[in-house]
Design a protein that fits this description.
The protein is of the alpha/beta class. Helices cover about 65% and strands about 10% of the residues. It has helices at about 1-5, 15-30, 30-45, 50-100, 100-105, 110-150, 155-160, 165-200, 205-210, 210-265, 270-310, 370-375, 405-410, 425-430, 435-445, 450-455, 475-485, 505-515, 550-560, 560-570, and strands at about 330-340, 345-355, 360-365, 390-395, 395, 410-415, 490-495, 520-525, 535-540, 545-550. A six-stranded mixed sheet has the order 6-7-8-3-9-10. Strands 2-1-4-5 form a four-stranded antiparallel sheet, covered by helices on one side. Helix 2 (about 15-30) packs parallel to helix 6 (about 110-150) and helix 3 (about 30-45) packs antiparallel against helix 4. It starts with a helix and ends with a helix. The relative contact order is 0.08. The model has no long low-confidence stretch (mean pLDDT about 80).
């Protein structure tokens, strides 16, 4: 994990080296003041060397001015290096998220993922920026100040230094408790983010059912978890800081007693004793800084672990030697397909279906029977293992084809349409990013939505809001159909594309869908059986099995499940 973290410094090696050099110079300048102080107290002041006093003071002032610019450099460029690293980590994480399979998003809430991309990475970058600086500055200061204190008085320095092992032991004992507490706090923070994301996304449903109080209750559960986790974290942090601060306070008491005895016995001069008191802060301060840095270290390490957890999730990968799917005719065949989302829950069981080029297959049956799962397996959204059958397109197993080439040739229109925040033009162009404006308009006309778009204030440049909130359900559906027209795939999947619409809107959209289906191999999932009467073949899917197959007339004549479903829908 350390090597992975360090790899993000590589693009910024030069500026990082300059940042560390500036930090080193800041440390060295910090040693000037006690050296000058000792010289003044032991030499310049007793010997009334006023010229040297002024010159020494001006030199110190000049060095402090230089240190001011060095600190600016460290603060500005150090943070910019951290920001660049954060941007790269966020880019890597986003790129990785785009490659993860559907199963990952089935198991992880959006709010939790967002927490890792924002809060966690911020903590990581704070560590990336401040960590090396603190370590270099503090380490140099500790070594130099220790050497200088030894130069003043060896015995007094060793007495003070004897407290350091105690400080280290206390820090290590408290550190583990603090790390565990902050990990717990980070998880609870992700829970809050997930609750907020869910509630804000569903705010219209909440208002429609006047359930604001219920949402507040749900939010408060996570909020109180966060409070309790923070309580444990800050309790551990308080114990850590108070314990270590007490040990560092003991440093001063030892200096006061031992130094006073040494001065009384004439072991050291008053000037050396005064310098020692000034200089010992140069030793204690970086020790304290390193101790306080432990909190930042814990936050940063915890954040990077959570970042790595996602980065280590296996992305979707093409099979070795996978080939492009080209010149697609559109023949689809499912051979003995079985599938389950978990080890305990089977969804499909030995499904066999074949659909010739340009024909329409309708899937009907009760909810949860496996119809949508079939629609997800054909574009290879979920991996089918070797022992669970095969799905063929034009006679080629989709596992031997590149996923992009398979998905490029399949258009999907679902009941739940997702539109991106942006313009009408942007959302239709999502079907094919290199499409011209003329092609976009032609696709909109075929989807029966061009006239409505032109009636908008800014036409195709109209902003539709988050998830297309300014559009009706039928308008969203027609925009999704326009996307597919633009994509122009050989295979079309309609997953309950009209089930949530009113009758008038359904007629308009059905016309667009009929136009869209022309010349394409089409799979239709529908609850409204009136929309699939003209399908070339209808398959009844019940509890993961194909129980009936045939045309509408053939299935009605059989008098089985399909006839019961049909009679149920069209009863008086």
């Amino acid at each position: 994990m350390f090597k992975r973290f360090m790899s993000y410094y590589k693009p910024h090696k030069f500026m990082f080296a300059m940042d560390m050099l500036a930090s080193l110079l800041i440390s060295l300048i910090g040693m000037v003041y006690p050296i000058v102080t000792r010289k003044m107290l032991n030499d310049y002041i007793p010997n009334k060397m006023y010229k040297y006093i002024i010159v020494a003071g001006l030199i110190v002032l000049g060095l402090y001015a230089a240190r001011m610019f060095l600190r600016y450099f460290v603060q500005y460029y150090g943070h910019m290096i951290g920001t660049a690293m954060q941007a790269q980590m966020r880019k890597d994480l986003f790129d990785h998220l785009e490659k993860l399979p559907f199963s990952f998003y089935d198991e992880h809430e959006t709010g939790r993922i967002m927490s890792r991309m924002t809060n966690d990475l911020f903590e990581v970058v704070e560590l990336a920026h401040h960590g090396p600086e603190n370590i270099i500055i503090c380490s140099v200061m500790i070594v130099l100040s220790f050497a200088y204190l030894m130069n003043i008085d060896v015995m007094l320095t060793l007495i003070v230094f004897a407290c350091v092992p105690i400080l280290v032991v206390v820090s290590l004992v408290m550190r583990k408790r603090m790390r565990e507490a902050f990990d717990e706090r980070r998880v609870s923070n992700a829970t809050i983010n997930a609750a907020i994301e869910s509630s804000i996304t569903g705010i219209r449903v909440t208002k429609a059912y006047t359930n604001a109080e219920k949402e507040m209750e749900k939010f408060e559960v996570g909020n109180q978890e966060f409070v309790q986790a923070s309580k444990h974290a800050y309790s551990a942090m308080g114990a850590f800081h108070s314990s270590t601060s007490f040990v560092t306070d003991v440093f001063n008491v030892i200096i006061l007693i031992a130094g006073g005895i040494f001065l009384y016995n004439g072991r050291i001069t008053f000037g050396d004793y005064s310098t020692f008191i000034v200089s010992v802060n140069l030793f204690i301060s970086p020790v304290n800084t390193l101790i306080q840095f432990m909190e930042q270290w814990q936050n940063g390490v915890s954040g990077f672990k959570r970042f790595v957890e996602i980065m280590d999730v296996e992305p979707e990968r093409d099979a070795e030697g996978a080939e492009e799917l080209k010149n697609v005719q559109g023949e689809i065949e499912l051979k003995h397909v079985s599938f389950s989302y978990s080890e305990t829950e089977g969804v499909l069981n030995d499904v066999n279906l074949k659909l010739e080029k340009g024909r329409k297959l309708a899937l009907v049956g009760s909810s949860g029977g496996g119809k949508t799962t079939i629609c997800h397996l054909i574009p290879n959204f979920y991996k089918l293992s070797e022992e669970n059958g095969a799905i063929l397109i034009d006679g080629k197993d989709i596992r031997t084809l590149t996923m992009d080439s398979v998905r490029r040739n399949i258009g999907i229109v679902q009941q739940d349409v997702f539109l991106f925040s942006g313009t009408v033009r942007d959302n239709i162009r999502y079907g094919r990013l290199d499409a011209t404006d003329e092609e976009i308009i032609e696709a909109a006309k075929k989807a029966n939505i061009h006239d409505y778009i032109m009636a908008m204030e800014k036409g195709y440049d109209t902003q539709i809001g988050e998830r297309g909130v300014r559009l009706s359900g039928g308008q969203k559906q027609r925009m999704s159909i326009a996307r597919v027209f633009l994509k122009d795939p050989a295979i079309l999947i309609l997953d309950e594309a009209t089930s949530a619409l009113d009758n008038t809107t359904e007629v308009l959209i059905q016309q667009a869908l009929d136009e869209l289906c022309k010349g394409r191999t089409t799979i239709v999932v529908a609850h409204r059986l009136s929309t699939i009467r003209n399908a070339d073949e209808i398959a009844v899917i019940m509890e993961g099995r194909v129980t009936e197959r045939g045309t509408h007339e053939e299935l009605i004549a059989k008098g089985g499940t399909y006839k019961e479903l049909y009679a149920l829908q069209f009863r008086e």
